[in-house]
């Protein structure tokens, strides 16, 4: 995941600076997916928390629903069922 973070970090900065937050969300989603592929869902939660910060500010109801579903699944993967339900 460190290699992916290294590659995506400049893009995150660029998109944040330009205000293109949907692209920032896309990158964080890719990083969270990468965490799941290498069986580190705990690390993916951090990326979903970054996404949550953005989506709660500017997201549509559909985007918020997708986020909460994804976060619930991420917590399910870590066996934190209480957090998954929340």
Description:
This protein is mostly helical and 86 residues long. Helix content is 86%, strand content 0%. The protein contains five helices and no strands. The model has no long low-confidence stretch (mean pLDDT 94).
Radius of gyration: 13 Å
Tally of alpha and pi helices: 5
Strands, total number:
0
| Average of pLDDT | 94
- What characterizes the major β-sheet? none
Q: Which range does the strand content fall in?
A: under 5%
Q: Based on helices, strands and strand pairing, what is the structural class?
A: mainly alpha
Secondary-structure element order, N to C: HHHHH
Poorly predicted ranges:
none
Helix content, binned percent: over 70%
Shape, principal axes of CA atoms? flat
Please give the alpha-carbon distance between the first and last residues.
27 Å
Please write out the topology.
Elements: H1 2-18, H2 21-37, H3 41-58, H4 61-77, H5 81-85
In short:
This protein is 86% helix and 0% strand. It has 86 residues and is mainly α.
Features:
86 residues, mainly alpha, 86% helix
